[in-house]
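ZP: hey, is the XIL complex queued? I don't see it on the tracker
AM: it wasn't, my bad. submitting now with these inputs:
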Amino acid sequence: MRCLLLLLFVLLASSQAAAQATLREAFAHRFVMGATLGDDHLFGRAVGSLELVKREFAAVSPENVLKWNRLQPRPGDFRFGPADRFVDYAEQNNLRTLAHVFVWHKQTPDWVFARPSGRRRSRDEVLVLLREHIDRVMTRYRGRIDAYDVVNEAIAPDAARAKPDGLRDTEWLRAIGPDYIEQAFRFARAADPGAELLYNDYLFHDPAKRRAILRLVKNLVRRGVPIDGVGVQGHYRLNDPPIEQIEATLDELIAELRPLGLTIRITELDVNVLPRDPTRTQALALRTLDEATTQEQAERYADLFRVFVERSEHLEGVTFWGVGDGRSWLNRLELEGKRRPVVNHPLLFDRKLQRKQPAYDAVIRAARANP
Ligand code: XIL
């Protein structure tokens, strides 16, 4: 009898704990769950969400404060305040850190590529600027930032169809040439040999683009360029791409990259609930998340996390691009040819930072499936 009572007690207690488990706890044995912090989280109107972040997540990424335009808006004028705040918060709360990003075709000031006179800088000049920038940032945060997206989105879908290397036409490519990618990785390894160095990109499920990314990454590894892993941006929609395609894409990446010792992460996860080209009416219709879309999004998250969990031995982590719906980058969309504010609902927490229970529970359930 006493045994039975004890068993009942243990069962009750564990189901209680299950009901209250956070993402961080539920996924502790699977992979590292992370979220991005924007300016508002760090020092703006959403600082309150930092409490939630440390309860729910085990890792953080900076949405903007480690981008070049924020760290070094003018030559030699480093502004470390916001980035320091990000790193301090992570350190004080025992959160892992995945930083973002050194080399990207966006949010990089013009002065990096042109002198004040307007004359374009030489390859060597730009290489020196790149090395100095990476060096300043990585030595400052040595031992405190675990991993970096060193290069982001270097392959473009159209370029991948037009030429074998698939390289996007960027200022980096024009100024330095195709080896800008490997140079960035070498500078990064020299600046902090302990940090994990990643290549990050989106649209891996596009076959031409995936082939070009795999060719690039495998080529870097073959030539001894210090790259440690790949980040797969997860900016998904309710039904696009189909889950089978996401699954097949991950399996191919695992088969191609894991034998080379590279890590794989899902970065920038969100589920956009608006149609690809919404009309104004459609965008307005979703000002609050209706019941049907709430369920559809929960099912999408269930599918995504089933796929991630089934492959968890090959996944280092999953990072959401944001915390609550109210601060998501997807609240601005191309609408009738212009970028306009919309009301989107892509994440697991709503505008009041409450769990969106159907989607949230679906994710937690996925963590518990096939142990
Ligand atoms: C976005 C940020 O979320 C926005 O706040 C900013 O205005 C533009 O950049 N892919 C990336 C991220 O790699 O850096 C982008 O972040 C989202 C798409």
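AM: back. Strands lie at 32-37, 59-62, 96-103, 147-152, 196-201, 229-237, 263-272, 315-320, 332-335, 338-341.
ZP: great, adding it to the tracker
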